[in-house]
């Protein structure tokens, strides 16, 4: 019998397209339809009539198990619904309709969430995935337009079953309507599954994209600091390194109001597993006005003071946030904080971010929905920042 074993889930939202992925139990064909639905005061899926009007469709008659289709010619900032279909000799399956929202235009507000360690923590976790499910459920309550995962989605990326156990099953109801991006953590082990399951721009372990007024850059810190050299690199964070050169050229080319970078190993954490070597990235991040860096790896929450030139700079610093996410290892903290630590707590959590052209609101929320940290960054027309 043909069944859907993963997804469907959403990838790489743009103003006029969305990539839809799913996995089937057998090699099968793929089709995705995007539908418009009429708004009413109450009814199907939160104030929509049952969607019937197909506005875009895409199909692939070739057989595969991991399906990836990009639906095009959509309108920006618009809520649609989608259906997916697969068929082979063993049967036919479909799923939907599920909501999707295209990317907002420049100048329009949006929100996103950040978490990580759904698998990295689970290696120590006795809760049978309860924490992972709670974190996904809490993020869903905030209805983010997209979400970032800062690595260690799985315990062992080379183990196929891990992807279902730690990520796709607990996250199913969330990623069905929330496009997501991830970076490689050490637990992914640079496995081919990462490259198969996610639809990021090549080479996929690092890439960048725009959403509204934010330019996001994903880096692969496990490539900068190879496992055999961890936690000290062999001096690869410099020009001539393909990923470093990509970072510089990419930052040079963007004129986005906000710049956010995410990668797994934390350059600043008052706890274990800090990878100081990654501070070699800071000069270029500072030069091009990066606002926030998200990291993970140390399974706690920690927000740094704004830092520039290796010291606190309340006017123009970068805030480094370790969103160690779906777990909590209080013992990994040092007994006391470091100079760069602004706020920190070892609880399972995610970060919720609301973005407008000149204000970034960040909130850290625990697995039961309690707010435990907040920061606002306001940016003047001269680019000057205020941390509130
Ligand atoms: Fe890690």
Automatic annotation (TrEMBL):
Signal peptide: none annotated. It holds the Pfam family Pur_ac_phosph_N. Keywords: Signal. SUPFAM superfamilies: Metallo-dependent phosphatases, Purple acid phosphatase, N-terminal domain. Residues 8-87 form the Purple acid phosphatase N-terminal domain. The keyword Transcription does not apply. Coiled coil: none annotated. It comes from the Bacteria. Transmembrane segments: none annotated. Residues 134-300 form the Calcineurin-like phosphoesterase domain. The keyword Signal applies. This is Metallophosphoesterase family protein. It comes from Paenibacillus spongiae.
